[in-house]
């Protein structure tokens, strides 16, 4: 009986523990269900937030693409505008350069023409004054010769009269006639001396005027030479600018290939004009290159030495003719 009572007590205790365990299980199940519901709620909220974020990302991506397309279009528009502005300013610069060169050339030509006209005019005046001076000198020489002849004839006549009067032994008549003749001769000599002085003074004045004209002609020649030098310098500068402008658009790959071919083959006569055209050499530079190439004659060799040296020096045929510094 005691055993049955103990077993019943143990059974009751087991039932009580089972009931407690069942209560705990139910409580745990309810807690688990609450946690699941909370987790599902959180998952739903997170899904909604994620969908909202995806929508925002899509909107931002769309806006970014539109902004990128707008930026590309604006960039292309700006590039087109810049190219148009550069082309417009380049055309304006070329027009201004042409106008400046034309104005400078026209001004120099007009100044040169005016200087040439002034030079010709002064030259004509100089020649006219020279002719006048020569004619005056000739007239003066003729007048001096005539005066000398008149003086000589007058002296001869006076001596003849004096001798005739002396032979006639008429002293009184001789004295009366000799004095007026001598006085008249002295007056004529004084008059001729005054005329000679006036002519010499006029001749000196003409010579001074001729010298002044000659100095002015020399000054005009110097100015003309200076203008010609300035015109030559401006033309050279304009040609250099044109060559630099043309040199900017040269294909450097083609230039490299031409130079390589020149160095490999040494065909200076055929390739030098090509390089000169590509790099816009001036006529003076081309002439110097040709003179340098022609001034280094090839030394002929004989026999086997010629064959060996030809094989050794063939790749350096161009460098043997030019000296680089």
From TrEMBL:
This protein's membrane topology, according to the annotation, is: Peripheral membrane protein
Which residues lie in coiled coils?
A: 4-157, 196-237
The record's listing under Pfam families reads: GRIP
| A Gene Ontology cellular-component term | Golgi apparatus
Question: Mind telling me what this protein is named?
Answer: GRIP domain-containing protein
Record keywords, A-Z: Coiled coil, Cytoplasm, Membrane
Quote the subcellular location field of this record: Cytoplasm; Endomembrane system
Which InterPro entries does this one have? Answer: Golgi-autophagy_related, GRIP_dom
Query: Which part of the chain is the GRIP domain?
Result: 245-292
Q: Which lineage do the record's taxonomy fields give for this organism? A: Eukaryota, Viridiplantae, Streptophyta, Embryophyta, Tracheophyta
Keyword check for Lipid metabolism, yes or no: no
